């Protein structure tokens, strides 16, 4: 038991450290951009120069941008720890937290199904390819192609084929302009119709990676001594695969942890392609309009999701891989 | 394990749908009836989240006009201030303007709109600096309620010209609601805004807002009911998308610049203002701003040489597909009566210019800018290399093309100008702080009820030094005391003839000094579909300026709503697929109940999930077979 505890403590420490660094970078990066964020807000004042002048000062103060950087940094930490993400400049005067709250469901609904589905399907396909030569030679090029495609590129290809050429799916938004969100089959259908292409972009690109990983692991495991031994004992192929699959699974879970950051980043670009109103799209808007607070907020959410997901996987790992538990217990003992 | 996963997924899905659904209960309608809904686009670029008319710069388009209303409308086609909430308005003496309100004005919550509300609207801006119209109190002394329908505005220094602008730009707000709002600059007013207008806010989300007709609108007895029950104002993310929506009939009223329009317009019955080139009315002047504080651009002769060297026809053709026309040398929008009556033809004949690169060469030679080192570009007279830049925000493709054309034009006369495309925020910082050589801009050069507003933007007298931001349009910091004096005189002059005299003087100075070079008239982009709504205004039926941008509703948009009619009984149209550039395989089904998800799409909607299911089942099937 103390083993697990030590494992957790160590992991927690590392995650806390990562968090501090990530948030600091999150604070600095937007401020390195050239340009004046308040200016953008005021650019709509074409004919009102006097008011614009007055408001520039007003907004600098309101957003705290007139204070020295270190003070802004400290108050940023203070705000983050209190869950206050400030007010968006671009979407003024909407609080960033509210913007994110409205956008987050769209992300979760894209990310979770695509990660889970591609992981399951990819592993199955990979295992199958690892087992069957013929199948393998057909599928591997496809997998490599998928894995090597950047998310946004694959999204553009899908958009081109299915919306521009075939006109089957809508190209932007999360639901039709004439539909009002509600619990009805009509809305859900419309929602899914818009959801499918962004989902497929994420799904297919991830799929390639999982399949390749699994296929290689299976080939490796099939050559392993324990399989040879079982084989010589006359175990059925089904049984052999069952064991090989179990062992090949572990690196795939680590892979999931490692890939998460990339997937989330891919999600951002896919949303930009499809103008899908999730965090990715909002982030893009924030960057284009130099909205410090919105950028910070979006990155913070991304940082938190990646860290939490990674942490969960670490925990899961400790549970499903007895070796981890043991190593810590032995050290402790 | 798998069951748990499925359950979690399901829960997430349901929860997030619930999150989006917000307050809508299952009972309300899901689909807006297509034949009663007007889809509009072109004036909304970020999610709609501010419906506060006192900060008109931040308010979503339609806040002023559709929800809140102004005392007057302005019709630029007839150059007429038309009473709206007001019944009449006039100067009763040198410094008092009296407004009488219409009979039976009401707020959307049923309370009457009275002279007290008008007084409150103005007093509110005195109390809170930072509202759009707060600076009025620099020359307004008092707003006096005479009786419940009459208000007197008493000025300390009447700005006759500027006042015209404010008459149709200040939205009257209800006192009984706004007296409780303490910090208006920070007030988003998204929860059930109460105005007096013909539409009420129905719903907003990330990509649109929906308005519903106010069936108790005070104006019904004067103007009749606007035909659309719902207005859906949408963000469209690209011009191509706008085009395909327009062609399919998913967008009724578009105010986007759409590059493909000339090619496809006739195939799909899309209405534009003019049947042929240039298709659109001009609405503002795109200027090439020159930094008057930097050499060699501080030399009027050098600037004139540039003006001779730039070919506006090529700009109109290459950058805007001839959907615009080249600007007059003064830059004035002379096609509108308000500008026409002050236009000084003689000054243009004497000091004007037109495309003539030879003249540019002559001037530059005379000034001593010669190509000394033989690299094809002129140098300063002292041999220093001459290299300028022209700035345009990245992604504004038509302007980027303009910048390229200008750069090429100037290269022909041996001046090296490199186009530079920074992000918008950097571009905006550069022009406001004056840290640029040349830049294209048009933010305040549109048509107004008074040319004074136009000149005041372009030649704004109180500019800051370079490095400190100014927010007028005088980006290049042109300074001329005579101009400041004229601008002031025009503003406080009552005599129309004298005013015209001053305007003529202004134009002469502008043409002589040529601080900035007018390029083209940006269009009042307007493309309308006739599949669901008809009777759109055109040059043959010019009943209103059909623009739905922020602050343009009072200039014609409202009248468009009062005039358009639903298209008659659905006629089956055969889809024309002759044009190759249009890519829509789905055939048009403009039935009266046609909605974004009609039968034709239903099958496709199922297609996706079914395919997915198949994919998910694949591994299972594969396993079974073994």
Q: Layout of SSEs?
A:
The complex is a heterodimer of chains A (333) and B (626).
Chain A (H helix, E strand, L loop, with lengths): L1 H30 L5 H6 L6 H14 L6 H13 L14 H36 L1 H16 L2 H15 L19 H38 L2 H8 L4 H38 L4 H10 L3 H29 L1 H11 L1
Chain B lengths: L1 H20 L15 E5 L27 E2 L1 E4 L4 E4 L2 E8 L2 E6 L13 H13 L12 E8 L2 E6 L4 H8 L3 E2 L2 H4 L20 E7 L2 E6 L6 H4 L6 E5 L4 H10 L4 E2 L6 H8 L13 E9 L9 H10 L2 H9 L4 E2 L10 H4 L4 H7 L5 H11 L19 E5 L5 H16 L3 E5 L3 H10 L4 E4 L9 H8 L22 H12 L3 H18 L2 E8 L3 E2 L4 E2 L22 H7 L1 E2 L32 H27 L1
Helix pairs in contact in B: 8-12, 9-13, 16-17
- What oligomeric state do these chains adopt? heterodimer
Query: What is the percent of helical residues of chain A?
Result: over 70%
How many distinct beta strands of chain B? 22
Helical/strand content category of chain B: alpha+beta
Largest sheet of chain B: 6 strands, mixed
Number of strands of chain A: 0
**What is the helix tally of chain A?**
13
Give the end-to-end Cα distance of chain B, rounded to a whole number of Å: 24 Å
| Major sheet of chain A | none
Strand coverage percent of chain A: under 5%
Count of alpha/pi helices of chain B: 19
Radius of gyration of chain B: 28 Å
Give the low-pLDDT segments of chain A. none
Return the average pLDDT of chain B rounded to an integer. Answer: 86
Order of helices and strands of chain A: HHHHHHHHHHHHH
What's this entry about, in short?
Chain A has 333 residues and is mostly helical. Chain A contains 13 helices and no strands.
Defining traits:
heterodimer, A: 333 residues, mainly alpha, globular, B: 626 residues, alpha+beta, 6-stranded mixed sheet, 19 helices, 33% helix
Tell me what the structure shows.
The complex is a heterodimer of chains A (333) and B (626). Helix content of chain A is 79%, strand content 0%. Chain A is globular, with a radius of gyration of 24 Å. Chain A has 333 residues and is mostly helical. With 626 residues, chain B is α+β, with helices and mostly antiparallel strands. Chain B has 19 helices and 22 strands. In chain B, strands 10-11-12-1-13-20 form a 6-stranded mixed beta sheet, with no helix packed on it. A 6-stranded mixed beta sheet of chain B has the order 15-19-14-18-16-17. In chain B, a hairpin with a 2-residue loop joins strand 7 and strand 8. The C terminus of chain B is likely disordered. Chains A and B meet through helix 2, helix 3, helix 5 and helix 8 of A and helix 1, helix 14 and helix 19 of B.
